[in-house]
Amino acid sequence: MKESDIRKYAGLMEELGLTGLEITEDNKVVRLERSIPVAAKEAVPAGPAPGAQMVPPVPKETKSLSEITVKSPMVGVFYAAPAEDGKPYVAMGDSVKKGQTLCIIEAMKLMNEIAAEEDGIIEEICVTDGQVVEYGTPLFRLRRAGV
Q: What pLDDT, in 10s, does the model give residues 108-130?
């Protein structure tokens, strides 16, 4: 199994809150396991399963009070528009409202709408249409409305 596939499954486990996942492919079995944090602030990471590689943590960014970074909640393909030749959901300089769809991330044949968590103005679109994104990849940088 490719490292990229393992990373995809690890991201899916994180997204769905799974502690274990077993994949059978070409008569080979790969089992991924992780521990659930004891407390919200005290995570006890599990060691890698034999033969598996650890997924590196996403580096924490310092952000200003006026900046919002919208990150990918999953591994998948970024789509800026609802259809191949459609108009993008948002463009640079657009004002967005909380709950407004910003893009779609396709993961395992499912189209997942990514919405704004706060009101703001699109300052930067960090990825390109059709780009594969990892869990935690910055998708948009917004300036908080009124700041």
A: 888 999 999 999 999 999 999 99
